[in-house]
Design goal:
270 residues, alpha/beta, 8 strands, 37% helix, 25% strand, binds S-adenosylmethionine
């Protein structure tokens, strides 16, 4: 199986492997130039930040994530790769005091859907961009357009829509509706908002056992299983195994998915 790697990056695993096709799309859309200063929001373990740093060889990349273990891992990986123009900060991007007008480009791979107050958060991130600086983020389209979520929920016998404020945590599909996202970004000081449809598959592992282990780690899966009695949970896991097996091909377990690349520019200030 071919893993999508960045320039000289090691083979991907975990979430990087799951999103290997999406990553290529984001990389092309970001069009990072050698002198760019890049901010990566919700960077996780930092694959996209490290790739940005390699591209911006005369510039820099900063990854921020609210998760301390993710930032620790991101730093370890960057150190192991010998990158000198990349840094990571543990920070809530909604409120963090970024250096004003420092960055040419803000990127994010599925790291911007979890803000409590998206207008405040994007306004805060926008102030870190120089005027006319670009935002390029990847977000999931709506839940029903994502076969992976539909299949997982169906096989676990869960409701098609989780209850608002329930145990499944923040909504990964919160930026799936273009008119709503356009409104959020305009209210946050962005202009030229555009959407590109991304129809790519997600990768869950080389075989059914690996895919099941991976999907059982999803917040939604574990929350749904935790709410069941042990016998029902065992049956649900068996049904999930069958659903994953139905998606096993020669190169592993893959599911259809739909995302948006959302691009925008920091609006000029008078
Ligand atoms: C789906 S993961 C994506 C991680 C990474 N971008 C990647 O593609 O590997 C979402 C990430 O956003 C981070 N996150 C959520 N809310 C955040 C916030 N308010 N500020 C910074 N990071 C946040 C989470 O901790 C998590 O690492």
């Amino acid at each position: 199986m071919r893993h999508a790697t960045g320039d000289h990056a090691p083979a991907a695993s975990g979430y990087d492997a799951e999103l290997q096709r999406h990553n290529q799309v984001l990389r092309r859309a970001a069009r990072i130039r050698p002198h760019d200063h890049v901010l990566d929001i919700g960077c996780g373990s930092g694959q996209t930040t490290r790739e940005a740093a390699r591209r911006a060889r005369a510039g820099s990349a900063l990854g921020v994530d609210v998760s301390e273990p993710a930032v620790r891992r991101a730093r370890e990986l960057a150190r192991a790769e010998g990158l000198r123009n990349v840094t990571f900060e543990q920070a809530d991007a909604q409120a963090h005091r970024f250096q004003q007008e420092r960055f040419d480009l803000v990127i994010s791979r599925f790291g911007t859907m979890f803000f409590d107050d998206p207008v405040t958060a994007f306004a805060n991130v926008g102030q870190a961009l120089r005027p006319a600086g670009r935002l390029v983020m990847m977000v999931w389209q709506s839940r029903e357009r994502n076969a992976w979520d539909v299949a997982i929920r169906r096989s676990l016998g869960a409701a098609e829509e989780p209850a608002a404020g329930g145990t499944e945590g923040p909504d990964p599909f919160s930026l799936g509706d273009p008119p709503a996202v356009r409104e959020i970004l305009h209210a946050s000081g962005f202009a030229d908002v555009a959407f590109t449809d991304v129809h790519e598959r997600v990768y869950y592992g080389p075989d059914v056992a690996a895919a099941l282990a991976w999907v059982r780690g999803f917040t939604c899966t574990s929350a749904i299983l935790k709410g069941m009695d042990p016998a029902a949970a065992r049956r649900a896991v068996e049904d999930l195994r069958v659903a994953l097996a139905a998606h096993l091909g020669d190169d592993g377990v893959w599911f259809d998915s739909r995302a948006w690349i959302v691009t925008a520019r920091r609006a000029a200030t008078d």
